[in-house]
Design goal:
about 150 residues; alpha+beta
Length: about 150
Amino acid sequence: MHKKELKNLTDIAVNLVEDLCAATQPEAIKLHVSKAVENFHLQLQQLYLSSQHLPREGLEKVLRELVRIYRYDEGAGCFFIHQGTYCVVHPLKPEFNHRDLVSLADAEGKLFIQAFATIAKQAGKGFTGYRWLNPLLLGRWRSISSIFFIFQK
């Protein structure tokens, strides 16, 4: 391999690593999540408008189903709906549905549902984080950090 070719390949690899590093910075993640939220909210609104002819129970069922199945980031990201600390619909843990999760704590003891409710009530929207145990990481339970965008509509 010629020196020039090796230099070009090295530059490509360095640029790729720099881009990947930049994409994992908190501000880049927040921007990405904000865009996913905007897209989800738009789809939720469109579904609401096209389903208004349904009785209230039917409309709620249709909207909950969208929340249940909607994913972004190749299935890694999802949305859930709370009213205060009360879980209306959670797509990954249906056992949380129709329950007050005020005392739910993350892997470090943070009462993150309370934090969600506080942000929604005080600011209407914002970011917060919490740590959750992911059993899929390297075949064993690992505590990983998650960034959440909370909004109230």
